[in-house]
Amino acid sequence: MSGAHLIDLRSDTVTKPTPAMRRAMAEAEVGDDVYGEDPTVNRLEQRAAEMVGKQAALFVPTGTMGNTIGIKVNTNHGEEVLCDDRAHILDWELSMTAWFSGCLVRAVPSADGVLRWRDIEPHLRASGPHNAPTSLVHLEHPHNMGGGTLYPLEEIDTICERAHERGVRVHMDGARLFNAVAASGLPASRIAANVDTVMFCLSKGLAAPVGSMLAGAPEAMERGRLYRKRLGGGMRQAGVLAAAGLIALEEMPKRLCEDHSNAKFLAEGLAKLPVVCIDPGKVVTNIVIFDMARSSLAPEQLTAEAQARGLLLAGVGGTRIRLVTHVDVTRADCERALEVLGSLLGG
Fold first, then answer.
1. Which helix (H) or strand (E) holds 156?
2. CA-closest candidate to residue 304, choices 291, 289, 288, 315
3. Which residues contact residue 93 at a Cβ distance below 8 angstroms, ignoring those fewer than 6 apart?
4. Assuming Cys at both sites, which of 70, 178, 226, 279 could form a disulfide with 197, CB separation 3.0 to 4.6 Å?
5. Which CATH class is domain 7-14+255-344?
6. Domain ranges (residues) in the chain
7. Which of 60, 44, 31, 39 is nearest to 246 (CA)?
8. What is the pTM of this model?
9. pLDDT for 134-143, tens place per residue?
């Protein structure tokens, strides 16, 4: 397929910066951010904090670093972090909760990645002679491996209220937080109002080339700045990247509903294929996960055959395949993707 148009549905991490972002990067006012002297980074951190309703924010290179620091500032070595059993921090972040924070992850089974307080409460542990205390509850919203599922706002509020009553803090992995905003109609500041820290990505659906934000209380972000340096995240003249992040924050959330519409279109088309198992009603953001267990093809065969036809897909374990829509995927691309998948899966 050299030179041909590739439809890349592997992830929204593959998005390219917009022309406006590239111009802003070229013209960015910069300084040394390790000294706190990059004016563009400072503007980005202030704006990000405002948008999620927190007092301070920290610009980090990646979502994994943002989650790592978010967990670290909320815990001490030898404590437990409670999350769902398909959480990104558990399966896709190289055990950083253990490696950097020195904490044990206690995974709780959930439906579609969404924990309820009734799921969480029985697994909370107080400090004692034989067990480590639970110090942090982790929520992923939207949930990646759950298929872009969302927590009901009232459940986020309940979890935060009940956790705080017990002296337990709450961190939100909101890598695609603005997809949740677009899908729910709720502002980011309301969604994250009661969590102690929240991370969200400027890349992925917002299409910045690099960067994520961690937000919370000023003292937590000051400690986070030191942890960022320890992790190699002191980026010096990072305003070149922050300039794209500002465009991502201000302009890109407005169009995310288009990605959600395309994801729903894909899900509804896939549901018509006899060998595909998917519930289109559960697709509310830009992630589509389907099961092809009834197909005679193995997942790796499907992805290889699809790539030969100009369609890039990603397996996410077992017989599950994930499609992610984004700014560089059009409705026509989605129509073509369904044609390819229909021909390969017997539709």
1. helix 153-165
2. 315
3. 64, 67, 68
4. 70
5. alpha beta
6. 7-14+255-344, 19-252
7. 44
8. 0.96
9. 999 999 999 9
